[in-house]
Amino acid sequence: MNVLExxxxxxxxxxxxxxxxxxxxxxxxxxxxxxxxxxTPSPHxxxxxxxxxxxxxxxxxxxxxxxxxxxxxxxxxxxxxVFASTHGDLVITDYMCxxxxxxxxxxxxxxxxxxxxxxxxxxxxxxxxxHAASTSISGWYASFAVALLEAAVQALADNRPILLAxxxxxxxxxxxxxxxxxxxxxxxxLISPAGDRRPTLGLGLHEGRADEGLMxxxxxxxxxxxxxxxxxxxxxxxxxxxxxxxxxxxxxAAGAHSALAIEVRA
Amino acid sequence: MPETIDPVYITAxxxxxxxxxxxGDHLAALREERSGLRNNDFTHVPLTCAIGRVDGLEQRALxxxxxxxxxxxxxxxxxxxxxxxxxxxxxxxxxxxxxDRVALLVxxxxxxxxxxxxxxxxxxxxxxxxxxxxxxxxxxxxxxxFLEQLLGTRGPCLTTATACSSSAKIFAxxxxxxxxxxxxxxxxxxxxxLCGSVLFGFNALELVAAEACRPFDIRRRGISIGExxxxxxxxRQGAAGKPRLIGWGESxxxxxxSTPHPQGLGAQLALEGALARAGLGAEAVDYINLHGTATxxxxxxxxxxxxxxxxxxxxxxxxxxxxxxxxxxxGILESTVCLLAMEHGLIPGTLNCAxxxxxxxxxxxxxxxxxxxxxxxxxxxxxxGSNCTLAFARGVPA
Lengths: 266, 398
Prior knowledge:
Number of domains of chain A: 1
Largest interface: A-B, 70 and 73 residues
Oligomer: heterodimer
CATH architecture of chain A: 3-Layer(aba) Sandwich
Largest sheet of chain A: 8 strands, mixed
Structural class of chain A: alpha+beta
Number of strands of chain A: 8
Order of helices and strands of chain A: EHHHEHHHEHEEEHHEE
Helix content of chain A: 25-40%
CATH superfamily of chain A: Thiolase/Chalcone synthase
Number of helices of chain B: 11
CATH class of chain B: Alpha Beta
Distance between the termini of chain A: 23 Å
Helix content of chain B: 25-40%
Mean pLDDT of chain A: 96
Low-confidence stretches of chain A: none
Number of domains of chain B: 1
Radius of gyration of chain A: 18 Å
Shape of chain A: globular
Low-confidence stretches of chain B: none
Number of strands of chain B: 16
Strand content of chain A: 15-25%
Strand order of the largest sheet of chain A: 3-2-4-5-1-6-8-7
CATH topology of chain B: Peroxisomal Thiolase, Chain A, domain 1
CATH class of chain A: Alpha Beta
């Protein structure tokens, strides 16, 4: 595949102990420890009532998306967006399926409309007053790679900035055996066509495998995050390269038979 | 406004729904104004409603090689992809272009959730039964995993899941990837199947009609849920006679999770985007296949936009009375209706609409009409305020 050249204008991140990208970047460099007081994302963009009611994937995606916008020069209400999750909202899936098995007529209408894969995108566009296009995707354990590729395609095809938000939240009930996730992790990136700004990414999809040992050398706290959350496992290799602020080449899983080659230019 | 785009060609397409398997069955049912809806015989707990059910899925297991993906939604994909010789045409395109130059862009609202629901009805203690401890059916990307294994594509493979706009948005995605030169062809698949989540979920929202849905009728009371599998092969180049995707528009309502913007702002933005990319004015549009779900609010808002933007010359209708609302598959199924309308000069009416809501303009076709259809649009709107309009042009005889 021909290489797509984009730049990153802003990054957002939330994980237990790491409330934002600056703290996680310091942690990835081995310069900071996790903050045990950080247990729930709390996006200020959402009204207080919404923050209390909204499902965790909505809080998480809105928090990291708002961080990435704030770190860039772009207003949230103008940005087209790509949202991605490996599993979607498994707490709602567990609720829906257990209710359907026992008392289907008692299904909650609110939880049903919150069950769609694009619920975080829907809440984000409402909160940000954004009428631009938004999509929501999954590529299973290749979700981060295909979402990054889709964001780059959209940025270059229409020569505009694109907001990428990728997240997963804890699994629940019997689904834990087939779709495991033990903690929340979200990352957002403001992706634009490459210009003079840094860092830039060169992206190319190739048949073949991801690099082995992508997490080697990272602080133990981040290896634990990668073991506990599929989106952390998929995105932390790139985030570590960005935190190091040095040129890097890596290949991350983009499907059963393909890998996304990423050239990082700091 | 976006710039115009170069058209891309639709070199093969097919659909399977309650109307039957393949475009021939769909064309016949449209011509005969024969609905595929029936009384709900799907749910174990009674629910009074009409459904658009595809027959034969219960008897048609996936081949052994694909047992890991076994579930109703993937069975429907398997039934649908073999119709009209689509699987052979897709494989020929992969041979012609190279597997790494072909994207597999799939769309679904609920994917294989039916398999997950089944697991909860047959729990072994607190765990799924052994035959459902298969990760590949408990993921939104199950359809993509199955079809990638079946087809052997090596280009981008991802699932778009934006509720009822999903399978319209993959046409736009394919056009962008072809324009950037990262692929030469895309295989599009939109598949959604009946499951408890959507039947009882829409019921909980009081959006399901007790009788067969009546789009745009003054007495409409909600949707009928259907299932469908639609496929399209999109290529940079195609023979002169092949239809083309000439425009698309996407937008967000930014209003409410499950209720459309009251003035149809998102719908209007999607429509304007599609017309701008096609380089056309509204007067060029011959036919619009509307989202037309038959919920009171959707039809009111959508009819308002059509009445504001188009002259009486443009014909518009909803085909939900034939197929039901096939949710994530609706965009590609209704694109098929547009392609049939252009190829056969047939404007489908709005089945089950006896007395149109006064908000409807003169554009709404109640009964089938014959017309020269060169340009057709289709609207798809989903939960979360996700909107997409596609614009198609008829093939030009060589």
